Amino acid sequence: MPADAGPSPALPALGIGMDSCVIPLRHGGLSLVQTTDFFYPLVEDPYMMGRIACANVLSDLYAMGITECDNMLMLLSVSQSMSEEEREKITPLMIKGFRDAAEEGGTAVTGGQTVVNPWIIIGGVATVVCQPNEFIMPDSAVVGDVLVLTKPLGTQVAVNAHQWLDNPERWNKVKMVVSREEVELAYQEAMFNMATLNRTAAGLMHTFNAHAATDITGFGILGHSQNLARQQRNEVSFVIHNLPIIAKMAAISKASGRFGLLQGTSAETSGGLLICLPREQAARFCSEIKSSKYGEGHQAWIVGIVEKGNRTARIIDKPRVIEVLPRGTTATALAPDNSNASSESSS
């Protein structure tokens, strides 16, 4: 949306519809960038749940290429159905996880709101004041750009499959395509990925001249790709050819008849960044993010292209599935079970 209808040059602004709002301030060429998000528990470990919630909030800033956050607030709802003992054990762990992830992101939690509610809820608000060169507006993709994804898909499938281990009716539908051990490994991998900050990818967006980006969360890779495509100034469309998926999750999605993982509609939590990069930069971005200097666990795959079009996004009929192996496993331990897949270690 235009920041100013008047003749004077205006700072860019962004309102409802993308990952963060960008509001030009009254003072000195600065912009306020802010985002909020919250959700319900999806993993059993309250500390990891706190980390995931914080990573998910910060990810909306990282999708703008912003690497610094000035302030965070925490939103916390404690369930009224929890006993006093459960509250005293679980709540501090969730708070610690959230605060530790904020500290890893170079920021701090300075306030928020805690309520009692029927459900446990955790989330927050992330705020930063930026100069124009600190963020990348998500609207400048050009024909010939390459789409890069920085985390594998399949988190919702992994979390649900892990819950099904204790639900015979659900488990019986998928046990022919996956073992209990494979589900446990996928769940641990999903939890690790969801708790990983997208901060490194955000910094590399500047290094490699990214043209636009979004993070992949509740609408799945297709929904967020379509949303990003609609924001583009040029007449372009996104075409996705490759789907990096946590190993065996595609098979579970097919066997269960749920999720729509191969169709790109399966929800993700604290997913990776989908970045539009110049063609000549994409491979270098993918190589650089895996460098040990950024720590363990960062990954990236080329998943598609930007072509001339009418601001839409689609996945081809038979996308190539890249089976992303959980850390510490080998290709022989988790062999792909369809001819349109390839294996790749996430270590």
TrEMBL record:
- Asked whether the keyword Kinase is assigned, the reply is yes
What Enzyme Commission number does this protein have? 2.7.9.3
Keywords of this entry: ATP-binding, Kinase, Nucleotide-binding, Selenium, Transferase
Residue ranges constituting the PurM-like C-terminal domain according to the UniProt record:
143-315
Origin: domain of life: Eukaryota
Catalysed reactions, as listed in the record? hydrogenselenide + ATP + H2O = selenophosphate + AMP + phosphate + 2 H(+)
Q: Which residues form the PurM-like N-terminal domain?
A: 19-125
Q: What Gene3D superfamilies has UniProt attached to this entry?
A: PurM-like C-terminal domain, PurM-like, N-terminal domain
From the record, give the transmembrane residue ranges.
Answer: none
Give Gene Ontology CC terms.
Answer: cytoplasm
Name any one Pfam family assigned in the record.
Answer: AIRS_C
Q: What does this protein do?
A: Synthesizes selenophosphate from selenide and ATP.
Q: What is this protein called?
A: selenide, water dikinase
Source organism per entry reads Prolemur simus (Greater bamboo lemur)
Lineage of producing organism: Eukaryota, Metazoa, Chordata, Craniata, Vertebrata
